[in-house]
């Protein structure tokens, strides 16, 4: 940390010789999702000498008080730490100065971590005598490790020059306006780059009658805003969106906006308009530079994007720019038609969840006459309270599905939409023209399908666009197809009716169940009968329900050919309840007498759990197992496979039907029976299987 009173004659290497700046890409960056929850919030207040840092610091101290904030002047911190004060500090060698600067910022960080206050620290980034070719940076690695935010006071250089001339209290070296402008630009450029590579949020602030209120608002926001806070605020917005129709809604469509509802990217359009109005090409690449940095598409990156929008335009100008952007956006007519049809349904709703600009999409939907029925969850400004990340999109699906018990359709086009698509009941990948659509999603999409259990379809907009992947892995669907539309708007009754597949009236079932019902058959012969039933149910019904996947096998004639196995077979856990039901020879096999016998590692990275039992009577045992599994893994698919299932246990109003409303729960049986008999002793299936009928 540099002091405010260090003069321009301080001996420091120029930026071209500074290893911290030149090698910033090699420095360890903070985790992209780091909330800084375990450290103090420390805000740096930077600007070249004369920009008004000290004056603003004093104003902030008076306005915000010191209950939740602590304010530090760099020069005072140095004076308090160095024996002999500032005068002694100025005479020291550079390495000694670095030591005291590091100690100063470390002290601030520790003090505020202990007190849980937000630190606001005024200091310098570099000094640049006009006679020197390059500026002399005075920040340290400890500054980069401690600061969580940096606000840069971007005062007009003409105003700074005049202030320096008028300052009678400090000995400020004179400098030309051109030199001050060059110095200021160098600081802003280098600080932006360093902050991106160290997870520090950065924003310019400007001298204006509203400056004090603006910075105060930002500091209050910095004090509270974490990723958990962000998600909580987003969930509150989700609740607001649904509260009006909560009692009637059965189905919700959750839609990404940019390049999904329309071919355009509204963020790119916004910055292009800013660039054109200010005749600066740098503006146009702002978001691309940000998201290609080590921050990636993290929570911190989207917070930084919000600060970019804040510094670029005040509310009035921002709103005008959003109007211009919205006027340049044309929604796909297929989505306009679908959303208008949805608006006519009492039991179906649609929500736009965008990582982009909420105000733009509010205006686009208003123009299409959809703003009253289609609400937008999004950010773009600090006043919105939250930013939308991939995690927020996924949480929206989970909240509507699990809290509001709704059937969820998700529509998206990019990597940011994959978590949302994966958690939805129905997923549609929107595929645009090859030259404008996302270039990064294909590999991630393929991985999600092959390894993460994503089942999705693709909609081509326009219809002559080339498909993604292949239409086997990602089948085509037309948004205007009457059958597709009906699948969205039809009444559902319970959110997920229980899917039951059984072979009760099939001749194969009659043959297979005969030895199981024959009292003279026991021991190995009965176990073989159960094995045959298990094999039949596995190949005939489970393969139909879960699907099969292709894999290469050597042909008997010496060449490679295709074989088939259960879809995601290696990520399937088969749980045999009690002593009955050893029906499936592949995948992970678990014997469980009690629900607690199933442990988290049995479900880790698995896609499906197959619960196998011989007989399901009341269904109580199965229900207990299902609830336990759901407590360990809320979204894993569960299939119950049994020889005989008592019909009433799966009838309307049963506990099994209730479980099905949470989704991904189904049942396969050799036969449904109206017989409520529960075996004991010589009639118990387990005893018959293992010849233990004689035991008490």
Q: In brief, what are we looking at here?
A:
This protein has 696 residues and is α/β, with parallel strands linked by helices.
The CA-CA distance between the termini, in Å, is 81 Å
- Share in helix: 40-55%
Shape descriptor: elongated
What is the strand content?
15-25%
Describe it for me?
The chain has 696 residues and is α/β, with parallel strands linked by helices. The chain contains 27 helices and 21 strands. Helix 11 (266-278) crosses helix 15, helix 15 (315-327) packs across helix 17 and helix 22 runs antiparallel to helix 23. The model is unreliable at 3-36 and 578-585 (pLDDT under 50).
Task: Provide the fold topology.
Blueprint: H1 19-22, E1 42-46, H2 53-64, E2 69-73, H3 74-81, H4 85-90, H5 94-115, E3 118-122, E4 126-127, E5 136-137, H6 141-146, E6 149-153, H7 157-166, H8 177-198, E7 201-205, H9 211-224, H10 227-243, E8 251-255, H11 266-278, H12 281-284, H13 286-291, H14 299-312, H15 315-327, H16 333-343, E9 348-357, H17 358-367, E10 374-379, H18 390-403, E11 407-412, H19 418-423, E12 426-431, H20 441-451, E13 456-460, H21 482-489, E14 499-502, H22 507-517, H23 523-546, E15 548-554, E16 560-566, E17 572-577, E18 588-592, H24 600-603, E19 608-616, H25 620-632, E20 637-646, H26 655-660, E21 665-673, H27 685-689
Parallel strand pairs: 1-3, 1-6, 2-3, 6-7, 8-9, 8-11, 9-10, 11-12, 12-13, 14-21, 17-18, 17-19, 19-20, 20-21
Antiparallel strand pairs: 4-5, 15-16
Helix pairs in contact: 3-5, 7-8, 10-18, 11-15, 15-17, 22-23
